[in-house]
Amino acid sequence: QGEFVAVKLNTKIGPVAKTLDAFKKIGENSQVMSFSLGSQYAKGVTLDYLNTGLLACRTALESIGADVTVDIAGSSETNKKLTYEYMVRALAKLGDAGSRVRAFCMHSKAYYDLMEGSIADKVTNVADVVIYGGAPGSLGRVVVVSDSESLITRDPAGDGSQPDIYHVLGLTEGAIRLNQSEDSTIYSEIVTGKESLMMRLQGETAHTVGIKGFEYVGGANPDDAELGATASWSFSMNSVKSGPGVLLNVN
Questions:
Q1: Which of 50, 106, 125, 165 is the most buried (most CB within 10 A)?
Q2: In angstroms, rounded to a whole number, what is the distance separating the alpha carbons of residues 41 and 24?
Q3: Who wins on pLDDT, 247 or 116?
Q4: Are the C-beta atoms of 116 and 127 separated by less than 8 Å?
Q5: How far apart, in whole angstroms, are the C-alpha atoms of residue 48 and residue 78?
Q6: At what angle do helices 108-120 and 84-92 cross, to 10 degrees?
Q7: Measured between alpha carbons, how far is 58 from 146 in angstroms, rounded to an integer?
Q8: Could you tell me which of 6, 4, 65 has the C-alpha nearest to residue 230?
């Protein structure tokens, strides 16, 4: 068990404050603030889970390197957009365990490139299905589309000379484990001593991110920079076939 270590991430909520008088002027009370912020908080926590999970998995696969990575973006290929050919190359990295890849997770830009290519290639029963059904084929895998920044490396050179890199993850079952590790706490109070009475809300929560076959070896409660550093992840398995999947980089 000591070889498969997840990392705990603590998240702050707020503090956020608003005068009680502001609600009275629109014929409402401070409960409106609690309801509105609660809805935003729920969505924000879900996105935090998604972004940190994808970042950790992508980085973990990058730490393994060429054994699980197909780098079209850095190759001499003329067409560097996502294609079925490149997806097959990625699956081939796992050899006879390629069937363990259950889903492809990709940015919407890569997804629509694949859709466009499906139509342009005019493959019988592929182009027509895309046109009428509105979705490209996926080699029998589930496709998860997310515009998470964790799936993009923007301008790798940092000088505007290189296009963004889009990371496509081919995920095996249980590749990313996200667990709420502590009960969330939200506290509200009336604040006095200011120009006007105020309602203030503040909270905190925590979740753990675990990547299949990996041990997190970085510092406690890392920021995105440390979570996204390859040195923070150590592969504990003897074969990449027992890992979280494969990584495909396209433009």
A1: 106
A2: 24
A3: 247
A4: no
A5: 36
A6: 120
A7: 14
A8: 65
| Predicted confidence (pLDDT) per residue in 11-56, tens digit | 888 888 888 888 888 888 777 877 888 888 888 889 999 999 999 9
Q: Which range, of 78-82, 145-149, 168-172, 185-189, averages the lowest pLDDT? A: 185-189
CB 208 within 8 A of CB 201: no
3-class secondary structure per residue, the chain: CCCCCCEEEEEEEEEEEEEHHHHHCCCCCCHHHHHHHHHHHHHHHHHHHHHHHHHHHHHHHHHHCCCCEEECCCCCCCCCCCCHHHHHHHHHCCHHHHHHEEEEEECHHHHHHHHHHHHHCCCCCCHHHHHHHCCCCCCCCEEEECCCHHHEECCCCCCCCCCCEEEEEEEECCCEEEEEEEEEEEEEEEECCCCCCEEEEEEEEEEEEEECCEEECCCCCCCHHHHCCHHHEEECCCCHHHCCEEEEEEC
CB–CB of 209/234 below 8 Å? no
Q: Across-strand partners of 208?
A: 8, 179
Sequence-distant (6+) residues with CB within 8 A of 69 are: 61, 62, 93, 246, 247, 248, 249
Those residues with Cβ within 8 angstroms of residue 89's Cβ, 6 or more apart along the chain or in another chain: 70, 248
Q: How far apart are CA 166 and CA 75, in angstroms?
A: 14
Q: Which residues of 5-34 are buried (b: 16+ CB within 10 A; e: fewer)?
A: bbbebebebeebebbbeebeeeeeebeebe
- pLDDT at residue 118 greater than cutoff 90: no
Distances (CA, A) of 251 to 43, 115, 234: 29, 15, 28
